[in-house]
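Handout, section B. The chain below has 169 residues.
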Amino acid sequence: MGNNYLKSWALWVNGSHIPAAMEYTPPALAIVESEFRAGHMDMPTILDDGMEALSVTMKLKGVDERVLALFGFQAGGRPRFAVREGYIGGSGNEFLTDEMSGLITRYESDARTESERAKCGVTITLRPDVYKRTFNQKELIYIEPLQGIRRVNGVEPFGDITKWVMGRS
């Protein structure tokens, strides 16, 4: 990914295109920091103590009953979201995809005002329990906390530990 710019993007939910998507904010990836200081150390060193919870927001114009029906826990499983982005760059067209599933924890309607009614809609907050980002079909990030997986650029730094404690090795 180099000198490029976003040309267009689209939101998909459970395999259906959501044409009224106006805004998408991907999850912030953040490490939970723990400090360690032994008796001989003048200052602490920072340790990786896992990741902070993921949160994604999406804004839709108007109302889409398909998305509203996915609010909260669903007996049929977690809704699957995909955001496909197309970039124009110096080396040609480039493609980024975010795929995630999780729990919709917030469904917030905009205030109704006398102006800007055409932009009135809802903001949805999704708390992913699986998140994958690919660029030109190459996996950049894959996070699946229940399986103990955090893979970045194909590297899973704690993979051997996870396999051992989960009885997979």
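Note. The chain has a mean pLDDT of 89. Compare this with the example in section A.
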